[in-house]
Design brief:
single chain, 576 residues, alpha/beta, 7-stranded mixed β-sheet, 8% strand, disordered C terminus
Length: 576
Amino acid sequence: MLQKVISDFEQVLTTIQKYKDKFTETDIRLIRRPLNALKAEKETRLFDRVLESLFKHKLLLGIAAYVILLPSIWLILLRIAPLWLLKINNALKPYTDFSLPFISVNVPLRYVLFVGWFHYHPRVLNAWVAKYIKAAREQFPKKDTVNSRVCYIPIPVVLDGTTVPQLMNENLRSTFEKQRSCLVIGGEGGVGKTSLACRIAGWAMAETEDQRLCKHLMLPVLLEEEFRVTEGKSTLLEAIRGQLQALIDEPEPICQELLLRLLRKKRILVIVDRFSEMNATTREAIEPESPEFPVNALVITSRIEEKLGRVNKTIIKPLRIEANKLSSFMEAYLMQRGKRDRFTDQEFFDACNRLSLMVGQNNITVLLAKLYAEQLIASKDVTSNISALPENIPNLMLGYINELNRDVTDNQFDDRTVHQIAKTIAWECLQQSYQPGTAKRVNAVAALAALGIDDPEAHLNYLEKRLHLIQTIGSAKDRIRFCLDPLAEYLAGWYLIELYGNNDGKWRSHFFKRADDLVKTGAPDAIKGLLLAVRDCYLSEVQGSKETDFVPQKLGNLAGFTLPVTAVSTVQTVIP
């Protein structure tokens, strides 16, 4: 009835509007006012009916409040306390069989209450990372691998085919803006791959946004050990979970659901160091080309060119230090170490000249330049006589060990004993694949015992705890490896020289037989470091040897190095 009256009034008003020149404004108002009053009455009655219906049907009222109120609460928490959403979600996880009314469906309660749709929001993940970033910034630099590379001097790199004088975080932003970021740092041992990876980890944790790899913070996880196979579990996820737990200093491991979300949303930067030297089981667990691969922010260091299927990857190749830039590098390194003012200009340039004479016109790796700089510093502490510095790379390696041993203040082993056990252990770590790897601790103990070493365990502990040359790895703590790959290669080279000398027959039937097999199976790049280290040691140690001798010539051919060598002091560190 009310609607009919309103319709009649509207028709009258329409007619008046049509012939408004025959009606006054007062006539129009006389019609419009009661019409508006009737419409207001209609809306009031409609609202009353809705309320009456809701009160009669309390379920509908509850549903309305449920749909509107709960999401609003979670949105407010998302703004002011995002981690509460994660806590509430975790508290509701045990309730997995909530039965919805009217339909026979069981749904986890956390999704019924809508919190399950908010707890992995980017703001929640950012808040979780922010909670632990302070601990990560404290713990990550304490790792042996990172701490030994704390002194970082930027060097030129080749980034996707373009030479960059000094790699900065902004050079990598386009890589980490992608949905899946894969960065491969490739190059020979000692060229600075791991140092650069540690630098990238620092950018991931940078305090200010303009210093980061992307807008949000990331927690770096360093994987440098071969994975332990666990039945029914992902070896990769378990390795990441263990390292992350140590990084954030939490007593309990992170739940897998949250870990996967952090990995997929690039809140965790996974760094796989020495990928080329890892065993097949570990390498097979890291398959970025797989759609199920959970890591979307990945950095890999490798001695060889990694194919990684069809993965869209960014490739970085650190370059050697050019011979004409050695003095610049040395000065920067000594300045960063706070030692430059200990040398007069004449002493500094004399030292740089000795290094130039050592390497000739060849470029050298960052590691060798750093080792030389450290021994230069040590020479100032001991003799103030730079003439005592090594004249070639093999002796530089032994001199480095001597300097480490000199710092031991009590129960010190003599240098010759340290050399002997270090050379033996180095060969144990390389003899299987001719590239730096791991050795079983029991095998290392047996090798030292065969030398007539009393208490081999004590000698291994001396290398690890006092000199920090080796480290124990693996969940079972049953394997050891050298901290510096090139050092292991040169020590192994010394071991072989002492074992075979200039006996070509022994070299052919033992070392070269295995080397030829490895080269045929496609491993020349992987074993090149050892081949050239052995060559350097041979030419510096075996009396009367020439570059035309069978052993150095064969080593050079296998390594792809064919240029003539004119003097022992210039053969080291050459890789064309």
